[in-house]
Amino acid sequence: MNIGEQIRLFRKRKGLTQKELGEKIGKTAQVVSNWERCYTPTLNHDDLIAIARALEITVPDIIGKEEAIDYLLHSGQNRPFDLEELLKYNQLQYRGLMLNDDAKDDIRVVLEIIYQRSMKSKKHKS
């Protein structure tokens, strides 16, 4: 199933029209239609994230699990991506060891600690 078919499938499961999905992400129904019919050769990172959020799914659900990590790691070399999105992948590994859900939860806890420290530091600098 291609990306356009995935968007259509999840949009219909959510009970949305092309117009309604477009409104949720700031695009026209025609743009959504073009994506679904693969008239637009590629989707940019921001559009993929917006679609996933509007449909309450993940980017890997749209582009496929196999391509997802490569996409995130190589879409815009100097562009940051959300680690929370990365942790939604089914198969993550570290040094060859597959990470289970408990390990991913541990990573989320550490990331939250880093986030809180950064926010605290930011407040002190203001």
From TrEMBL:
Domain called HTH cro/C1-type: residue spans: 7-62
InterPro entries reported for this sequence: Cro/C1-type_HTH (IPR001387), Lambda_DNA-bd_dom_sf (IPR010982)
UniProt organism field: Anaeroselena agilis
Protein name: Helix-turn-helix transcriptional regulator
Record keywords, A-Z: DNA-binding
SUPFAM superfamilies per record: lambda repressor-like DNA-binding domains
Pfam families linked: HTH_3
Signal sequence segment: none
Domain of life: Bacteria
